[in-house]
Amino acid sequence: MNKKIPMRQCVGCREMKGKKELLRVIKTSEGEIFLDVTGKKNGRGAYLCPNEGCLVQAVKNRGLERSLKTVIPKEVIEGLTKEMKIIAK
C-alpha cells in the first residue's frame, strides 16, 4: 500500500507541497517565533518554501501573521530571513 505524503500549504506562494519540502515557522506558548528545523517542536506552526521570496510574500500578504495568530515584529522577520539564508545553502 502506498504511504500518503502529508501536504502543507506555503503561507507565501500558497502552493501545496510535501511537508518535508517546506520549512516550519512556529510560535511557542511563550510567544517566541523561530524556524523549527526538526518540524516536531510544540507550538503553532506555519509552513514556508525554503526561499526568501516566499517569506517576503508571506509578510506582505500577512499570511504568516494570520497563521501564527499574532503580530510579528520586524526584528523577528529579519531573524527568520537570516536563518533561512543559512538553511537554504
Short description:
The chain has helices at residues 52-60, 63-68, 74-88, and strands spanning 7-9, 16-18, 23-27, 33-36, 44-48. With 89 residues, it is of the alpha+beta class. It is globular.
Describe the structure.
It contains three helices and five strands; from the N terminus they run E-E-E-E-E-H-H-H. Strand 3 and strand 4 (33-36) form a beta hairpin. The chain has a three-stranded antiparallel β-sheet. The protein has helices at residues 52-60, 63-68, 74-88, and strands at residues 7-9, 16-18, 23-27, 33-36, 44-48. It has one domain: 2-Layer Sandwich (Hypothetical Cytosolic Protein, Chain: A), CATH 3.30.1230.
Write the topology of this structure.
Layout: E1 7-9, E2 16-18, E3 23-27, E4 33-36, E5 44-48, H1 52-60, H2 63-68, H3 74-88
Antiparallel strand pairs: 1-2, 3-4, 3-5
CATH topology-level fold name: Hypothetical Cytosolic Protein, Chain: A
Q: Name the assembly state.
A: single chain
Instruction: Report helical residue fraction.
Output: 25-40%
Tally of helical runs: 3
